[in-house]
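Repro:
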Amino acid sequence: MDTTSASYGRLVPGIVGMTLVGSSVTVSHGLVDAPLFTTQAVRYAVATVILLVVARVAGARLVWPRGREWLWLAGLAITGLVLFNVAVVRGVAHAEPAVIAVAVACVPVVLAAVGPLLERRSPSRQVLVAAPVVVAGAVLVEGTGRSDSVGVAWAALALGCEAGFTLLAVPVLRRHTPWGVSVHATWLGAVLLTVLGTTVEGPSAVRELSGSQWAAVGYLALMVTAVAFVLWYSTVRAVGAGRAGLLTGIAPLAAAAASAAGGTGAPAPSVWAGIGVVVIGLVAGLRPRGAREGQVADTARLPAPDQAPTSAHAG
């Protein structure tokens, strides 16, 4: 396999993962009336069991966190799995869903700038230029919406939490691998959400789930959590957070496609235009620049296990 093909091959897991995330929007609509924290707690608990079983069958080596690895993994679970859900739910009470979606769509810019620093590399000029293009396309796909100042604040928190889901995994990916990071993130998230669900919604809230909602939770646990998490972190580890971050632009495209397939009609012209812009940004940002660019994953210096990266996040 030539260098270019190998470079693009490393992106395939992330592409599939983001497609699963985006296409899950239709399934998630069935959980609008379900108790939020309890539902998410069940989702991540089931995903943990699935991951443990599949990891054992696949022969993946799982290790227990040590030292400051607990901080990175707990931070990942708190931001990416717990606070993100809170920000979305509270945010839509003050802003139209498109506002939250647009904020989350800005993730490629954050990952392009901060991700390489955590990996002890300089940000790629190619990725930095392409990231705003991907964001612009995602905004066209998602549309815009009305909001008040509180809604903007929740949207900003959602953006930070979504970025944290990737950035906080970087320092522990080498030792724990995508399997380990996924397992520890899901069980930690399940514990935190169980506490929230029991406190806010009551211990009997799980009985409120209908058969269709249980089916939706099962799909989210298997495909959008267990499968998508491992695929996503595999690409982050292989190509770096900066380049992988561009792939988040695929999620709104998959969401638009799933909505159209679900009978909501053909996408509007602005959506088609946004899809084109996202594709242009992805091609520009992910195109290897010779052999050296194609081998970036092999030379990237991920922080050593249990060692703080030399960046602003190290405190």
